[in-house]
């Protein structure tokens, strides 16, 4: 069981990835993202998730340099955006991201969305970056089972992570089973349903465990073996989101949360987002 902030998921290649990280989507470059990353590190976070399209990689990199924690103790994720998909363009996009972050290597590099027909070429570029030691692990984001099957039909390295929208209204059961079977670590973006936490079951369980609805959802993620990266710019909320290691949801309560599933997405459908 996951009972400490220092616990890690172990990826298929043996690389350790923190179960909890900070997502920095929609954080503005400069002061906002820098302060959030530093606050997260102070609160014990060691994983930071950004992306080229977020436009804040330089701020993340500055905060990493100034946070006082050695680089090798941090786990930094970034992603290649749709317009940069393709072999050569992905290699170029990676160098741009790495330079903005100011890092010698990135811990996890993801294809941000499957997009159209280029993700196999893009994956070949990620495999090269991995073999060259510029990335410690490679993976995908927003891939459904059929995308993974298509990619895995002729890839050399199986994706180590699949970062998807995952929360009690979108439990992704088929995808979870597929990823588990193939040792692909599932990771949740938008775990807190973009703030839509006013569900009676969550309110009830928050009272029962003496936690907030957000903490209940994040604990549910962990107990499903799903890495989670809640986003917040407020230090108090960043700390609160990390206070999920001192309790455990019962099997009955896990099932009650699973029962909320409506296959509802707050973000785009990966089959329709190019």
Automatic annotation (TrEMBL):
This is Aldo/keto reductase. One of its GO terms (molecular function) is oxidoreductase activity, acting on the CH-OH group of donors, NAD or NADP as acceptor. It comes from Aneurinibacillus thermoaerophilus. The record marks 79 as: Lowers pKa of active site Tyr. InterPro entries: AKR, AKR5G, Aldo/ket_reductase_CS, NAD(P)_OxRdtase_dom_sf, NADP_OxRdtase_dom. Substrate binds at residue 112. Residues 20-261 form the NADP-dependent oxidoreductase domain. The active site is at residue 54. Coiled coil: none annotated.
């Amino acid at each position: 069981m996951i009972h400490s902030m220092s616990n890690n998921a172990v990826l298929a290649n043996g690389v350790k990835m923190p179960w909890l990280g900070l997502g920095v989507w929609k954080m503005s470059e400069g002061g906002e993202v820098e302060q959030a990353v530093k606050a997260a590190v102070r609160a014990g976070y060691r994983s930071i998730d950004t992306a080229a399209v977020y436009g804040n990689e330089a701020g993340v990199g500055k905060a990493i340099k100034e946070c006082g924690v050695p680089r090798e103790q941090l786990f930094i994720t970034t992603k290649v955006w749709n317009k940069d998909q393709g072999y050569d363009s992905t290699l170029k996009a990676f160098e741009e991201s790495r330079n903005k972050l100011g890092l010698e290597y990135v811990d996890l590099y993801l294809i941000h969305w499957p997009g159209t027909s280029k993700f196999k070429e893009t994956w070949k570029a990620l495999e090269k970056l991995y073999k060259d030691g510029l990335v410690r692990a490679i993976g995908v984001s927003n891939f459904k089972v059929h995308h993974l099957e298509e990619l895995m039909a002729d890839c050399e390295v199986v994706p180590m992570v699949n970062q998807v929208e995952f929360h009690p209204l979108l439990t992704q059961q088929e995808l979870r089973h597929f990823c588990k079977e193939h040792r692909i670590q599932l990771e949740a973006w938008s775990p807190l349903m973009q703030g839509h936490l006013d569900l009676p079951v969550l309110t009830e369980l928050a009272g029962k465990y003496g936690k907030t609805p957000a903490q209940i959802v994040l604990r549910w993620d962990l107990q499903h073996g799903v890495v989670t990266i809640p986003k917040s710019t407020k230090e108090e909320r960043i700390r609160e989101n990390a206070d999920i290691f001192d309790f455990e949801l019962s099997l009955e309560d896990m099932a009650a949360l699973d029962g909320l599933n409506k296959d509802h997405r707050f973000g785009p459908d990966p089959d329709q987002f190019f």
